Amino acid sequence: MQSRFRSDRRLTVRMTVTLFLLGLLYVAFAAALIVLLKSWVLVVVIAAGALAAQYWFSDRIAMYAMHGRVVEPEEYPELHAVVDRLCAMADMPKPVVAVSGLGMPNAFATGRNPDHAVICVTTGLLRRLEPAELEGVLAHELSHVAHKDVAVITVASFLGVLAGLIVRFAFYSELFGGRGRKDQNTLVVFGVVMGVSAAVYALSFLLIRALSRYRELAADRSAALLTGRPSALASALTKVTGDIARIPTEDLRTAQAFNAFYFTPALGAGPSLGKLFSTHPSLEQRLEQLGRISAELGEAAVPGKTG
């Protein structure tokens, strides 16, 4: 069923191209492992099992990692009311609603499709935002679900995760410390596996980052058009980004692994790395887009914009 969130052809094209390129990379990666490890059954079974686990259980993994729990309407009536209203406006199934006890103000959506989705907000976000701002954030997350880019990011992330795990395994493997000709041959094989895995990880990392940045702009745009209040979303962005900047870095390290799923990143890529490694567009870029939408809708100026 098509939701009333405005479709984004450019996002669809980007998701298709990203999955196609990652698919080619995945086939080449699996072929290289089969040649090097001489066991196609082992490679196929492990890869298929890991992919299936990430696809089917990604929502549970994310919820566990971020200490989220499913909440009923009786516990958070206002939160459920906003989600109900937005789902009715967008004509889409209501996702499972969850709350994380983290003080970091943020939100994320996960799940393999609109019928099996979870939208989670932190208590830190609920404490800081006004009702209209919260509505903007939730509309942003629901847009990810409606556009199915949550599932695409989940699947796309799999190859990088697998390659990263193989790099770690190869690095820490005791086989590197063996003696004799057989052990030297094993060392060469695992050295090549580690090199191929590192290259695959780097390429998938860059592809996913590029898609992630665009999908955040697409979600901002869709949320602003659905609610008709881009200024409220801009206000939430400004407020949340400023509050996260004041949280000690060490308190954000655990959350950083899930940056691609967040409303705003827990930790940025840093000026030295630039936007190439960032999971999100800059705050300025997001506010500029919302400012244009606000002008198109005839709304008042977006908070945080000048000039």
Automatic annotation (TrEMBL):
Residues at the catalytic site: E141
Provide the cofactor list for this protein: Zn(2+)
Q: Which UniProt keywords apply?
A: Cell membrane, Hydrolase, Membrane, Metal-binding, Metalloprotease, Protease, Transmembrane, Transmembrane helix, Zinc
What is the membrane topology listed in the Swiss-Prot or TrEMBL record? Multi-pass membrane protein
Report one GO cellular component.
plasma membrane
Report domain Peptidase M48 positions: 75-291
Where on this chain does Zn(2+) bind? H140, H144, E216
Kindly state what the record says about how the cofactor is bound: Binds 1 zinc ion per subunit.
Q: Which GO terms describe its molecular function?
A: metalloendopeptidase activity; zinc ion binding
Q: Does the keyword Transmembrane helix apply?
A: yes
Q: Which InterPro entries match?
A: HtpX_protease, Pept_M48_protease_HtpX, Peptidase_M48
Location in the cell: Cell membrane
Residue ranges crossing the lipid bilayer per the database entry? 40-57, 150-171, 187-208
Q: What is its EC number?
A: 3.4.24.-
Which family does the record claim for this protein?
A: Belongs to the peptidase M48B family.
Which PANTHER family does the protein's record reference?
PROTEASE HTPX, PROTEASE HTPX HOMOLOG
Recorded protein name is Protease HtpX homolog
Which organism encodes this protein? Streptomyces adustus
